[in-house]
Amino acid sequence: MMIHRVVRDLVTSKRNFWLAAKSLRVVEDCNGNLEVALDPIGTKPGDYVVTIGISAARIAAGNPKITTDLTIGGIIDYWDEDRWHG
Amino acid sequence: MMIHRVVRDLVTSKRNFWLAAKSLRVVEDCNGNLEVALDPIGTKPGDYVVTIGISAARIAAGNPKITTDLTIGGIIDYWDEDRWHG
Amino acid sequence: MMIHRVVRDLVTSKRNFWLAAKSLRVVEDCNGNLEVALDPIGTKPGDYVVTIGISAARIAAGNPKITTDLTIGGIIDYWDEDRWHG
Amino acid sequence: MMIHRVVRDLVTSKRNFWLAAKSLRVVEDCNGNLEVALDPIGTKPGDYVVTIGISAARIAAGNPKITTDLTIGGIIDYWDEDRWHG
Amino acid sequence: MMIHRVVRDLVTSKRNFWLAAKSLRVVEDCNGNLEVALDPIGTKPGDYVVTIGISAARIAAGNPKITTDLTIGGIIDYWDEDRWHG
């Protein structure tokens, strides 16, 4: 699993059926690389989170039919920002 | 999931059975790296899109027998091109 | 499988149901890149471990419903730290 | 999916059962990185091809028991070699 | 699939149940990056091998319950070491 910081929501006008009603967040890693994660637990910009990839991402979304390859799995209580260069 | 920009169509004369009738797009990430994504929703060059990888790509294609590892999942309404160096 | 060194525990206050009661460890590779791994065998900071990714990570967790993409699979008896620049 | 150029055949004397009778090709990406792909469609050195990874690679091989993680999915009709630094 | 060179055995005192009786090898790619692969066919240090990743790694291990994400699939008869900088 990866450690990401939530940047903001992602708005898409035209979207795959199984993602349609889901919250998507733009997240960044410690080098500033961006990815998009499904958020089933409710996060806000600035939160440090654990993200789950691979087939586990679909299970973590609560329904393996949900077409995600990255899902937020938890909010980290404290994260040392010194390692963060984003 | 990744953020990609659609570059153009990909034409292949000889193709795997399950990809045969599908639209393929060349897409690039913010560093200009190219990949090929299946497009089940209809995009055009220049669109910023969310792409879905791993086993979720097959589900997002509408049929898990479709042999894709990257499928376009949505068109992003607005994307800040400042992050884009492609 | 990858070789990682255990850095410390990861504490998350809000966590995905299937990860809820599991031990998570922050691990680093030889370049100092951090990831988070589920620990079903009991490791301590400083241990060199083999980590298992992809769908095998869920099986290695003891239950394929557990939403992990990286699971510690074994403690390495001896590891040459000369290769380690973390 | 990735874009690769076929370099040559790969000959292995001792091979996994499910790969035993299959054609394997050494392929390279635009940076010259080498990988090995299963070739179910018949390619020749110099062909630019679309390669399929992840679990879709096994399906693209025609039988999900075939132990490949990269399978050639199509031959690209025309590819601009200017992007190619291999 | 990747091309790796076998470096040596990996000894682990405490190991996941499904890996318990299996041979693990430390392997390196052409840049000297190390990974750990399950070896169902019998290799020795210095051998150039094809390694299989993703879910195919478990199938290549002979039993999909075996928790590997990288399995040696064949020994390469001849490999040009000029490409090898490890």
Here the CATH topology of chain A equals OB fold (Dihydrolipoamide Acetyltransferase, E2P)
Q: What's the overall average pLDDT of chain A, rounded?
A: 89
Largest interface: pair, residues per side: A-B, 27 and 24 residues
Strand percentage of chain A, roughly? 35-45%
Task: Name the quaternary structure.
Answer: homopentamer
Number of strands of chain A: 6
What is the CA-atom radius of gyration of chain A, in angstroms?
A: 12 Å
Point out poorly predicted stretches of chain A. Answer: none
Order of helices and strands of chain A: EEEEEHE
In order across it, which strands form the biggest sheet of chain A?
A: 4-3-1-5-6
In CATH terms, what is the architecture of chain A? Answer: Beta Barrel
Instruction: Count the DSSP helices of chain A.
Output: 1
Give a short account of the largest sheet of chain A: 5 strands, antiparallel
Based on secondary structure, the structural category of chain A is mainly beta
Distance separating the two termini of chain A: 18 Å
Shape of chain A: globular
Determine the fraction of residues in helical runs of chain A and give it as a percent range: under 10%
Full CATH superfamily name of chain A: EutN/Ccml
- As for the number of domains of chain A, it is 1
For this structure, what is the CATH class of chain A? Mainly Beta
